[in-house]
Amino acid sequence: MIGEFTLLQWALMLVIALASGFVHGFVGIGFPLIATPLFALMFSFQRAVPMLVLPTLVLVSCTFIAFGGAISPRQAFRRYWPLLPMSPIGIVLGTQLLFAVDQDLLMVTLAAIMGLYLYLDWRGRTRVALLRRHPTAFAFPFGLAAGLCEGAVNVSGPMLLIYFLLLDLEATAIIAAMNYLFLLGKVVQSGALALRGAFDAGVLQAALPLSVAGAVTFFSGVRLRSRFEPSRYRGWLKATLAFMAMMLLLRVARGA
To answer: What are the contacts of 112-117 at 24+ separation with CB within 8 A?
Structure first.
C-alpha cells in the first residue's frame, strides 16, 4: 500500500493517465472520455469522477497552449453563447444525479446517443437543416445535456462534440471551443463536488501524480499530431466518440 492505494492500483492509474493524456494531445480531447470509464472499472463512478476532476483541469490548461489560438472566446461563443450558462446549470443537476441515480442507466443512455449519432453520420444523415439555421437556439438543450453528462458521468465532451459536428465546424475550432467549455465546466464541477465533501485524502493524494503523467504524454501526442494532415481530425474525433461509447458499455457489462 502507498497511501490509500495498492501498488497495482497506482500502476494501473498511472498507465491510464499516460494513455489518456497522449490521446488528449493527439486528438485535442479525450482525457476524461477515456480515463473515467477505465477508473470506474477499478472504483465506483462516485469515486472515479472526483479523482479525475483536478487532473482534467490540468490537461485542459495544457490544451489551451496547443489549440487555444485556433479561435478566440468571442468567436467561439458569439453564436453559441447559451452553452455558457446552460452547461453549469446542467453540471449542478448532474452532480445530484451522480449520487442519486443508477449509473448504468446514465451510461447506457449516453452510449446510445453516441451510437445513434455515429450511425446517422455513417448513413450520411447528419445534415440537420433546422439546427444549422438556428444554432443559437439549439445551444440551449445541448448545453444543458452536456452539463448533465459532465456532472453525472464526468464527460460533457460527447454532447458538445455531436453539437459542433452537426454544425460542421472546422475541427481545430471545435477543439478550442470545447476546451473553453471544459475549463468552465471543471471549475463549476469542482465546486459542486467540494460542497459534497468528495475531495477526500485519497482523491487529493492521486491528483498530482495523475496530472503530471497526463501532461507529460499530452505534449508527446501534440507532437505526433503535427505530422498528420488536419483533414483527418474529424475522423479522429468520431473515433474518440466510438471508443468512449464502447468504454461506457464495458463498464456497464462489468457491473452486471
So the answer is: 113/158, 113/159, 113/162, 114/158, 114/162, 114/241, 114/242, 114/244, 114/245, 115/245, 117/162, 117/165, 117/241
Q: How far apart are alpha carbons 224 and 228 in whole angstroms? A: 8
Cα separations in angstroms, 197 against 50, 80, 194: 10, 33, 5
Report yes or no: 117 and 126 within 8 Å, Cβ to Cβ. Answer: yes
**Whether residue 65 has pLDDT greater than 90:** no
Mean pLDDT of the chain, nearest integer: 83
CA distance linking residue 239 with residue 137, whole number of Å? 28
Q: pTM for the whole thing?
A: 0.76
